[in-house]
Amino acid sequence: MPGITFKANIEDLRESPSLEIAQRLAGKFGMRVSIVEPNAAQLPCSLTNSGAQKVTLDDALASCGILLLLVDHNEFKKVSREKLAGKMTIDTRGIWR
Q1: Would you list the domain boundaries of the chain?
Q2: What pTM, to 2 d.p., does this model score?
Q3: How far apart, in whole angstroms, are the C-alpha atoms of residue 15 and residue 32?
């Protein structure tokens, strides 16, 4: 799951709708949820306590079959179509279409 901050390219998680979505998914799927957040040093306890883990973008692209893009950080805009091939992508920001 790429991005959980309030908006692109910042580290602020306050009032983030993406964080709420991540918390719900982590509550349901636990350690099956991998989160890429390049602007935060660590995940909030609400995610880690449910088993979600912070991973790098490269690790997520290599190991995740479903990618849910919630925040359009600059790092995510650089992902090539080849790296998305064969994966189910849910792009709420329209940068991977």
Answers
A1: 17-91
A2: 0.90
A3: 24
